[in-house]
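batch_manifest entry 22 of 60
target: Putative membrane protein insertion efficiency factor
source organism: Microbacterium paludicola
requested by: lab member K.T.
priority: normal
notes from requester: please return tokens only, no post-processing; we will run our own comparison against the previous entry in this batch. if the run fails, retry once and flag.
--- input ---
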Amino acid sequence: MRPSDALVAVSLLPRNAGLSLLHGYRAVISPIYGDVCRYYPSCSAYAVTAVQQHGLVKGSVLAAARIARCHPWAAGGQDDVRPHPAFRYDLTPHGFVVPCRKD
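--- output ---
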């Protein structure tokens, strides 16, 4: 691993820490509520994708805006996260963000 790869991995720690919290929420709390979201994907799945694509801060803002749109009078429907135009990372099978492999 080159030193620059180590710096990239360290810079991804906040994003992956946020993803850990979201995965915990989706595993423990989300099943209690059941399938009540008016949008597809659900708000928690939207939050995971937003943090993966845009980082912890911007992804959290996007997720909060989505939650604010989710109310009883919302029409709902398909609402995907816009992909980041310069996303240059890989995702693990568990959804964590890692530097691209150079295989």
